[in-house]
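In keeping with the milestone schedule agreed at the kick-off meeting, the structural modelling team has produced records for the first pair of proteins. Each record is given below as a sequence line and a structure-token line. The laboratory manager (R.T.) confirmed that both were archived under the project's standard naming scheme.
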Amino acid sequence: MAEQKKNTPPDTNRPSGTPSKIRIQYYRSAISTPVKHKLVIKGLGFTRLNQIVERVDNESVRGMVKAVPHLVRILEN
């Protein structure tokens, strides 16, 4: 099988073996958005506006963020 190419650069400040993290901020309300967008926000772990969560940086989390870029921000570490 062919290896999958990762789009994220390696983090040189973390010890080897620990997964890289991504910090996400929920900054716009999902009140008048489709139900699917609300479920993505809930799936990312947000419970209130302006909340910041830290998740493992993988393709599934990046895909969720890509689905609602108008509601969340990716913060620099």
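The second protein of the pair:
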Amino acid sequence: MKSLVKEHIEKIKSGKISLDEFISEIKKKIEKIQSEYSPFITIKIENPEKKGKLYGIPISVKDNICTQGIQSTAGSKILEGYVPPFDATCVKKVKGQGSVIIGKTAQDEFGFGSFSVNSFVIPKNPWDKTRVCGGSSGGAACLTALADFPHIAMAESTGGSISCPAAFCGVVGITPTYGRVSRFGLIDYANSLDKIGTIGKTVYDTALLLSVISGYDTLDSTSLEVRDEDFTKYCEENSKIKIAVPKEYFGEGVDPKIKDLVWKAIKKLESLGAKYQEVSLSQTTYALPSYYLIAMAEASTNLAKFCGMRYGFHSELKGNFEEYFSQIRKLGFGEEAKRRIILGTYARMAGFRDAYYLKALKVRSLVIQDFRRIFKKFDVIAAPTMPVIAPRFDEVKKLEPIEAYMMDVLTAAPNLAGIPMISLPCGFVKSLPVGLHLMADHLQEKKIIQAAHTFEVNE
């Protein structure tokens, strides 16, 4: 697939395209897409401030990433009307490279979900309007799939929130190493898990935006002091990839047709010169409960500041502070947010902290060790991104909370470990896209980009 982004940048440089006419044209297209699929919470198209690597490229921003002068709600009623007075570091970087900010994309409230239905704006799947887009970056993936104009989405993942919607919508999503991209200006879900990444139509598109937004930031204490990289230079074929295929990622819960497509993709890479071997990641079984305990505990702490006093939704000041805060949080938070606050608070309580939260942190260390053992011998791990194709909205409504949480079974472990991953399309089941998930060791984005590009250009 040709990169519209790459072509557009070249045409802008050569003067073949009028930026004003282009912006006027995409405004109409965005309005049409929004009326049919609702990928945005807020649409606001801003002209570029400077010229640079992204000059004239429309960039959408997930709604939990702060944008100066543009409402940022993180998909929650409790932040409706909140307009940040500053830009997140990653937004400041893309503006500095001449991008056209086009608005804020829909998501699950604070990132709580795998379907982008836990919000006041619910996007529809670009392949079938009766189905979900995946979560929590559902709006970002939806828009990327539908856009017939050059566009890259800035997204965010805590437990699979980039890979999941990328798979369900048939696009490419990169989740970088934890700390590779500054989290300053991100409305937190879980501080030790959140990662800002990119979604695009091609591997090149996602690599380009990642090149711009990554880098050390003194405003983020978890930011890694590593050299800046131009990830687009890794969009090259590599025929000597060593691939690990974990048997735990092809278990009973994964649709057999999805397994077949992913195996075909692995065999395709083998035919191009790659070597693969089946392996075991024994800690995978414990990754999902560990992830949810850590994420919910951190979320309950982070959401304590939303009380109707400083940000977004507020009401008439009456009663004592407990009565006022309780009323605001009752009205402002959705059902899933309340559930996670309660569960997370319970896990942190005296008497339960050692039994749940601290034990989950120990499991996390074992999961990281498990991955490191594999990466001593292999370049990438290959697996299905999601165990199922995008479900219908009516099917999601029937799911119990634990069943919905199980949707993250293939993405929780790599997110828990903070390793980089990429999801890219590898075929269709029932006319709906399926994702191939490639993972690599910390700071080895080069390897997943090379492997993904190799597959993409030969597909």
